[in-house]
Amino acid sequence: MKINDKGHLEIGGCDTISLAQRFGTPLYVMDDTQIRDACRRYVSAIRQYGNGMVLYAGKAFTNIAMCKLIQQEGLGLDVVSGGELYTAMKAEFPPERIYMHGNNKSYEELRMAVEYGIERVVIDSFHEVELLEQLARNYDKNIGVSVRVKPGIDAHTHHYIKTGQQDSKFGFGIEDGQIYRIIEYILTQPHLELKGLHCHIGSQIFETDPYIETAQIMLELMWDINDTHGLNMDEIDFGGGFGIRYVEEDNPLAPEDYIDALTDGIKAYCDNNARQYPRILIEPGRSIAGPAGITLYMVGAIKHIPDVRTYVSVDGGMADNPRPALYQAKYSAMIANKADKPAECTVSIAGKCCESGDMLIWDIDLPKVEAGDILAVFDTGAYNYSMASNYNRLPIPAVVLVKDGRAELMVSRQSYDDLISHDCIPSWL
């Protein structure tokens, strides 16, 4: 992003004010070049290791165009629902590069996975094993599965996005022996082929030590299971969680630093134990989509409360970005049409939903703010569009992809007719 000669913020060679005028606000804007750059850095880092694959975590930001983009960049895809899987198939994404996660996959979702012939189903419950074996038998197929493990790592992040500790709804514990029981159960199922293990320790992580520690735990677990049952599992999926910079105090590492630390740790531990290197998978989502996206809002009402604060209200809020309300997430922003102007006031950015908690940013320094200004909130490419809702019956904003001065829709804006398109009137009304 840069500031053009009009003093406006640009992204992907496009003037953000022109984008707001053409497509309306709120507006999600994604930078094609930045997405591809992140994909290529991860793919290059895995190639340096020699045996692995990058799976884009679709939950961060998914639509048909995004699936096509990551396919072009040679990534696989991690899906967590029937809707994400259906989107991938409509994008003609290769099923042999799709892995399906989720702690409560339905019968219908598993049926889709079996019917489409995806590469891997990640087991997360005993119930799921029963459903999947029944489906595999009905379709006369053998299904490759891996098992989600709770490695017992407590990553230093918000407690809502920690997933690797013992007390988690995801996966099977090592300390309580559940992982060994589910492995034994899977091995009794004639149509399920155990291929590997999976873990994910959390999100928005800025350190490499938790990944290195996790690698040692997962390697020892895989070797123990292989030795006990005479297996040859060689695949470990380490999930994602690589942090990004939302505000100045965030200090994330480069993609290469995360992957190099993980793979160097794997190689050293395997060498010390005279074991072969495993095939590894990683699942970056936020770190690919997040920094590549901004959200544009139009400023409306401005409310000065003497000796308290100034509230600047915008035409979106928690319906298009629930993360501040959910996780106390912090963002940086600027007035896009005054990008070359110095800050002269401290304000708080309020959303328009009928909730006191609908605050996007508390206490940010900006130039003088006026109604009609365009506010650009940075690093909103992940978990904004994908978590958007119709709360207060607000339409979900459009998503625009920009590249080399061109801008085209990835997702069109919902209309009011779209909002009521599934409403029904019971016969007695």
Automatic annotation (TrEMBL):
Q: Where does substrate bind?
A: R286, R323, Y327, E355, Y383
User: In the UniProt record, does the keyword Amino-acid biosynthesis occur?
Assistant: yes
Record flagged with keyword Protein transport: no
Cross-referenced InterPro entries, in alphabetical order? Ala_racemase/Decarboxylase_C (IPR009006), DAP_deCOOHase_LysA (IPR002986), De-COase2_C (IPR022643), De-COase2_N (IPR022644), Orn/DAP/Arg_de-COase (IPR000183), PLP-binding_barrel (IPR029066)
**GO: which molecular function terms?**
diaminopimelate decarboxylase activity; pyridoxal phosphate binding
**Biological process according to GO:** lysine biosynthetic process via diaminopimelate
SUPFAM superfamilies found in the cross-reference section: Alanine racemase C-terminal domain-like (SSF50621), PLP-binding barrel (SSF51419)
Pathway involvement of the protein, from the record: Amino-acid biosynthesis; L-lysine biosynthesis via DAP pathway; L-lysine from DL-2,6-diaminopimelate: step 1/1
Keywords in alphabetical order, please.
Amino-acid biosynthesis, Decarboxylase, Lyase, Lysine biosynthesis, Pyridoxal phosphate
Tell me its cofactors.
pyridoxal 5'-phosphate
The residues that hold pyridoxal 5'-phosphate are G241, E283, P284, G285, R286, Y383
Q: What is its EC number?
A: 4.1.1.20
Q: Which reaction does it catalyse?
A: meso-2,6-diaminopimelate + H(+) = L-lysine + CO2
| Pfam hit, one | Orn_Arg_deC_N
Where's the active site on this chain?
Answer: C354 (proton donor)
Q: Which residues carry this modification: N6-(pyridoxal phosphate)lysine?
A: K59
Top EC group: lyase
Annotated Orn/DAP/Arg decarboxylase 2 N-terminal domain residues: 37-289
Q: Where is the Orn/DAP/Arg decarboxylase 2 C-terminal domain?
A: 28-381
Q: Which family does it belong to?
A: Belongs to the Orn/Lys/Arg decarboxylase class-II family. LysA subfamily.
Oligomer status and interactors = Homodimer.
* UniProt function note: Specifically catalyzes the decarboxylation of meso-diaminopimelate (meso-DAP) to L-lysine.
Q: What is this protein called?
A: Diaminopimelate decarboxylase
In which organism is this protein found?
A: Mahella australiensis (strain DSM 15567 / CIP 107919 / 50-1 BON)
Q: Upper taxonomic classification of the species?
A: Bacteria, Bacillati, Bacillota, Clostridia, Thermoanaerobacterales
